[in-house]
Specification:
Chain lengths: 373, 426
């Protein structure tokens, strides 16, 4: 194998694949990225953690085809530090035992492991295929991803639940995520071919890696899935992942339907005020109290050590007085995804789940659990 | 009382500025404390002597002159050994069978933790009557900061402590040993110097000399591993640490270097923090015969979870981390922890988490002990927000509280979960 490649192109591809590779691996080959230089004038980079594999192609001048594997993080760190705009030459030396990297006057030799040992992630039969614009996929991920749970006990909450539904109006593709304290549900028009997909749970890490791949993309993302695997394909990159094998809880049950105390507030002022007042909240609870009375919202926080804070802002509300506490971080995570000018809260009482909506996106619904303050 | 008293009779509070004579001129007692700094030292460590064993002897005078061991059956460990038993080389935490090899005629008394904690609280009450600054280390030992109490008690901290030790003996019928110094580290060392029924003093002037020849293992935080590293660098005694600067010790041994440098010079800046709450609630049992079958282990596990849950609820605590402890047949200890979705006091939720951990370990190995605990404790008043899907948690907690009430009225055996009855009898 011998090729030259633009440092920028190599770095971009490496940055996508290297984050798949876990920092600490018990199986040495899983620390490596697989490099394939084919006759197609492309360098193909593959990384996997056995649950998730990313393969990405970058244009290169291939002088001699070949393949090897070498430490992904090491290669990434090297390329990252090379001069911007430089050319990088990769070649296998010492009978394929080492990968030589040359750029400018720098020269590195990295240990390699044989390509044959690199695990291949079997895709299996992907029965369902549809495409979604990168923009739509970004929206689904961004507006739900923050609510994904990180605790292992309820592993089935460690991802985004994706399924097709027509329960409430027109058929749609729906993404739901929850950690038990907050929930986000976002719909998008049902793409052709997605009507019969099984309900699947896409793992948190996969969601993060996909999000990185589509960061700058304006095109379509081809999605193929079965009930155990999903594949995302776009712009020369393919990500294949296992799905979480579990059943997502009946989320509709926890979305309150009868909350009748409706309040709207300017989103931007609200976010800024919550951010300011929560400065004083204890690191642990991050509690913030919301008091609503006569079109005035008072945000307040107290901490036995630090002191107290409060701020008033105007709100559309003229029903009976409400006092309710929230975790300010949960409120901010959610409000940041609300792009409309106003944010709408629907309360029942200070102990029951509160429904939150975006004034300009009726296809997004949020639920947040109050806390005692 | 003379402020410069350097001698104090522990039995009658006689004090003097000169320290001659073998016995007290007032009461003839030979328990005279002498130290040039006696009036100035205010940090005490109080440790009950062979606490569990002493209580058992108190409650059964027939045990008075016999070696007494408190602990589980043959297969458990010694929780406490009386001073007679200690003459046979028995120490607490020694396996019971080994203790009985050393002293076959010892009387083994099963532990009655509820009684011990009740008496521990009585001791603590006597302490807190002297100073609010009582930092309990365990059921039977505590640090006391008596700084500034001279006016209140009309005497030096030494005198207050001597009187307190007498009161504990008279009121509760057990003995304590007192260590008095100017910081926690030295007070704790001192309480061990004159056990049982002892009172030892380490002053500022004699601290460095005292420490010089002592093994480094005496320092708080120096365990087997660090001792070995120090030994490799030819440091065996505390005095040998002083040839290095704090910076050098930090460079060599990391953050603990600061502590090594300071402690070796008798400098401990930790303050007595009153009412340090429990860090974990746990319960364990040693089996009569080693067990490997998962269903049998599960039944044992549930019983321990049940006990932990009950204690959690009694103390109005919730805990976030579940820990499973196993001891294999070859005495290896395994601990496995898991963070729960939300802090709990429910035995059932603890059980579900611990069972998941147990299932991974129960691979055919034989085990001799199982234990379970909850840590990351806080008051149940701090229970975080309810979980959207958490109806079951609330229901489990309500059910268990009801069961607690029933048991309080009808005894522990009243309602039990089917799983505590163990696998089906043949």
């Amino acid at each position: 194998m011998k090729l030259t490649i633009d440092r920028g192109a190599l770095l971009k591809s490496l940055s996508h694949v290297q984050s798949v590779v876990e920092r600490r691996n018990t199986i040495p080959i899983l620390s490596n990225v697989r490099l394939d230089a084919g006759d197609d004038e492309k360098l193909h980079l593959t990384a996997t953690d056995m649950d998730l594999a990313v393969i990405e192609a970058a244009g290169a001048n291939v002088a001699q085809a070949g393949a090897t594997t070498t430490s992904a993080h090491m290669l990434y760190d090297i390329v990252r530090k090379l001069a911007e705009g430089s050319e990088v030459e990769l070649s296998l030396i010492e009978d394929g035992g080492k990968l030589e990297i040359r750029s400018g006057r720098s020269r590195f030799k990295l240990a390699c492991l044989p390509v044959e040992d690199f695990p291949v992630m079997a895709e299996g039969e992907l029965a369902h295929h549809f495409s979604l614009s990168a923009a739509d996929l970004r929206r689904l991920i961004d507006k739900t991803g923050f609510a994904i749970s990180t605790e292992e006990t309820r592993y089935y909450l460690n991802g985004i639940y994706l399924h097709a539904t027509s329960d409430e109006g027109p058929a749609c593709l729906r993404a739901v995520a929850t950690d038990g304290h907050r929930l986000a549900r976002v719909d998008t028009a049902l793409p052709a071919g997605a009507a019969d997909i099984p309900g699947i749970i896409v793992p948190r890490k996969t969601v993060g890696e996909v999000r990185k791949l589509i960061e700058e993309s304006e095109g379509e993302v081809m999605i193929g899935l079965s009930d155990s695997k999903i594949r995302f394909a776009l712009d020369g990159a393919i990500l294949t992942s296992k799905l979480i094998d579990g059943s997502f809880p009946d989320y509709e049950r926890v979305i309150p339907a009868g909350n009748d105390k409706i309040m709207t507030v300017d989103n931007k002022s609200f976010v800024q005020a919550v951010d300011r007042v929560s400065t004083i909240s204890t690191e642990k609870s991050r509690a913030i109290k919301v008091t609503l009375e006569d079109s005035v919202m008072t945000l307040s926080a107290t901490s036995p050590d630090a002191g107290a804070a409060s701020e008033e802002l105007e709100a559309q509300y003229n029903l009976e007085k409400i006092e309710i506490g929230f975790n300010s971080r949960y409120v901010l995570d959610m409000a940041k995804q609300i792009k409309g000018e106003t944010i709408e809260f629907r309360f029942a009482d200070s102990a029951s789940p509160t429904l939150v909506r975006d004034s300009e996106d009726e296809n997004a619904v949020y639920v947040i659990m109050p806390m005692r303050v | 009382m003379p402020a410069s008293a350097t001698a104090l009779c522990r039995d009658c509070d006689w004090e003097s500025a000169d320290a001659d004579g073998l016995s007290c001129p007032a009461c003839r007692s030979e328990r005279i404390l002498r130290h040039t700094e006696l009036g100035a030292l205010a940090i005490a460590h109080v440790d009950c002597d062979a606490f569990y064993a002493t209580i058992e002897k108190r409650d059964d005078p027939a045990l008075g002159d016999k070696p007494v061991l408190v602990g589980g059956s043959k297969r458990g460990v010694v929780a406490a050994a009386c001073y007679i038993a200690r003459r046979y080389g028995i120490r607490s935490a020694m396996p019971m069978f080994k203790a009985l090899e050393a002293c076959p005629h010892a009387v083994v008394v099963p532990p009655d933790m509820e009684k011990y904690s009740r008496i521990g609280r009585q001791v603590r009450d006597i302490m807190t009557a002297r100073t609010p600054l009582v930092e309990p280390l365990s059921i039977d030992e505590a640090f006391l900061d008596l700084g500034g109490t001279e006016g209140v008690h009309g005497g030096s901290p030494a005198r207050t402590m001597a009187a307190m030790a007498r009161e504990i003996e008279a009121e509760i019928g057990i003995t304590v040993s007192v260590g008095l110094s100017y910081n926690k580290f030295l007070a704790k060392i001192a309480s061990d110097l004159d056990k049982p029924r002892g009172f030892a003093v380490i002053g500022k002037a004699d601290a460095e000399d005292f420490l010089s020849t002592k093994p480094v293992g005496l320092l708080w935080g120096v365990g087997a591993a660090l001792q070995k590293r120090l030994a490799n660098d030819n440091i065996h005694r505390i005095g040998e640490l002083r040839q290095y600067s704090e910076a050098e010790l930090v460079r060599r041994y990391g953050a603990i270097g600061t502590r090594l440098a300071r402690f070796s010079r008798g400098d401990d800046r930790r303050t007595v923090k009153p009412g340090r709450p429990a860090k974990s609630v746990s319960s364990e049992t040693t089996f009569n015969e080693d067990i490997r079958a998962l269903d049998k282990l599960t039944a044992k596990l549930w019983k321990q979870c049940d006990r932990v849950g009950r204690r959690m609820r009694k103390n109005r605590l919730i805990g976030r981390t579940a820990t499973l402890k196993l001891r294999t047949a070859d005495f290896k200890i395994l601990t496995r922890s898991r963070t729960l979705p939300a802090p709990t006091q429910s035995a059932d939720i603890l059980f579900q988490a611990a069972l998941a951990l147990l299932e991974r370990e129960a691979d055919g190995r034989y085990f001799r002990l199982i234990g379970v605990g909850l840590s990351g404790l806080e008051s149940e008043d701090n229970a975080p927000m309810a979980d959207l899907f958490g109806e079951n948690d609330a229901r489990a907690a309500a059910l268990e509280k009801t069961v607690d009430d029933l048991r309080d009225r009808f005894g522990v055996a009243a309602p039990v979960k089917g799983r505590s009855l163990g696998p089906k009898a043949k």
